Each structure stands twice: as structure tokens, then as C-alpha cells.
Amino acid sequence: MxxxxxxxxxxxxxxxxxxxxxRPSLEAALAFLRPEDVLVVWxxxxxxxxxxxxxRTIDTxxxxxxxxxSITEHFDSETAHGRFALQMHGAMAEYFLDLNRERTxxxxxxxxxxxxxxxxxxxxxxxxxxAARALLAAGTISVGDIAKRMGVSRPTFYSYFPxxxxxxxxxxxx
Length: 174
What we know:
The protein is mainly alpha-helical.
């Protein structure tokens, strides 16, 4: 899609995140731009994680003589009407994001009230934990073998028994 828009250089962010997190590809794209260049994004919300961040970025682009284009929304940052439309669209996007966040939190609270707890189910039962604890205390079987007997990976085992990682590191350093 970027090639159809006539883009010569493409920067692609690999991770998603929340406001305030680092976005190395966006930072690299902004550093690459020169006056008279056009920054093209697939969708307006890719330019910032909040309305304030998005508008600050667009204003900085305008001050630097860089034009802005959104493929999905077809905005022109060069006109007063285009800037107003950008602000309205950004405000609506932020509103719906906040609304979705509120609904998610309400759903989680309702599920918790019904006795449902989020997250993955526990891999090891109370009986498994007792058996693993006894095997660790005996000290005759390696942590890797105990984890294998319990049917979990070594990192999962260490999440249940962080002291086992320290013990294994102490044994390895001898």
C-alpha cells in the first residue's frame, strides 16, 4: 500500500504499545524527513498514541516544512480545514479508545465479581508444587529434570520456584 502511495522509503513499527513508550521506527522516520518531504502513514492513529502526541507531531512536521498524508483518512495538513479535520478525527479516535478501555475494565470487574479471574490457568497444581518442593529439598535431581517430570519448561518452573534458579546458578558457578 505504501508503494502505491509513491513512498520511496518505508519505516514499519514492529510492536504496539501505549502512550509514552519508545517508537524507534517512527523516530527514525521523523529524523529522515527533510523540508518538502511528505510523511505518509497508513492510518492517522499511527502518528501518535494520544491526541496531544499526534497533534504535536503534526505541528512539528508543519514547522519543519514537512507535509503529512494519511492513506486511510485522506487528510491534508496544509490547510486550516485539514488541520481542523485532523483534530476532530483524532479526538474521536481517542474518545473511542477511552470508551473501549472503560468497557474492558467494567467487563473484567464483572467477571471478577462472578468469581472469574483472568490470565492463564496455573500449570502446576498444589500437589505438583508439593512434589516439586520435596524434590528440590532432596537435592538429588537437577532442576531441569524436576521441571520435565512436572511437565513444564525450566522458565515456568523458575516462575514457581525463583530460589531454584539461584541454587542452579550457585551449583553452575562451582
